[in-house]
Write a structure and sequence with these properties.
With 228 residues, the protein is an alpha+beta fold. Strands 1-2-3-6-7 form a five-stranded antiparallel beta sheet. A three-stranded mixed beta sheet has the order 5-4-8, with helices on one face. Strand 2 and strand 3 form a beta hairpin. The chain is globular.
Length: 228
């Protein structure tokens, strides 16, 4: 079982190293590690388990974060109903050798910036990323798949992909104007969330109309969710 003690922090050289491609078939050890990465995310989003083991909630975890420089990451993004109960996964996968094969020109950023399980501090600033991506990856058997993602799911995946390249999320922040917004960027926020197909955004008691975004994010559990 992976815990916070297994996750390396910024400053560790592995986090700045380009990860190696994974060869198939996988060894039993690598399979077990990949499954444990996904299990960590599921556990971290379970309030009882997270409290018991001191886990910080996350929706993504890349292999370099556990000091394994391989092109692997896991994601676990749940949807929630209007009562704040888990509905079904929006995206819950283990991805090997992932690669973005196309992306939109339009960018998106989380309104309050991004966080990371390997960064134990707040880093202010917007992290602009393509709003839509097309991703190719392999599963645990080596079979190729493609995903088309947008908005929050696209942000999470790009955050994890950066780890495989030795890039940290704050590398994308405009250091002179960290909260600078362009007219092409859609700003969304994910604290704890419910995501459904609507055209408005709720966070706490404030409403923000998003003419181009069909997601509703609700603060459900009062627990901070980290991209990874």
């Amino acid at each position: 079982m992976i815990t916070m003690q297994d996750i390396i922090e910024e400053g560790h050289p592995t986090l700045r190293q380009a990860a190696e491609a994974v060869e198939f078939p996988l060894t039993d050890e690598l399979k077990a590690t990949a499954l444990a990465m996904h299990e960590f995310l599921v556990n971290s989003q379970n309030p009882e388990i997270a409290e018991k083991y001191g886990l910080r909630a996350g929706v993504g975890l890349a292999a370099p974060q556990i000091n394994l420089p391989k092109q692997i990451f896991a994601v676990h993004i749940m949807s929630y109903d209007e009562e704040g109960n888990e509905a079904e996964p929006l995206l819950s996968e283990i991805l090997f050798n992932p690669k973005i094969i196309s992306h939109s020109v339009q960018e998106v950023a989380l309104r309050d910036g991004e966080g990371c399980l390997s960064v134990n501090r707040e880093v202010p600033g917007l992290v602009p990323r393509p709003r839509r991506i097309r991703l190719r990856y392999q599963d645990m058997e080596g079979k190729e798949h493609e995903l088309r993602l947008r908005d929050y799911e696209a942000i999470v995946v790009q955050h994890e992909l950066d780890h495989l390249k030795g890039i940290m999320f704050y590398d994308h922040i405009n250091q002179q104007q960290p909260w600078y917004e362009t007219r092409f960027r859609i700003i969304v926020r994910a604290s704890d969330w419910v995501i459904i197909s609507v055209l408005f955004f709720y966070a706490g008691r404030n409403y923000f109309y998003l003419s181009c975004l069909d997601y509703l994010a609700l603060s459900c559990h009062g627990r901070e969710m980290r991209l990874k």
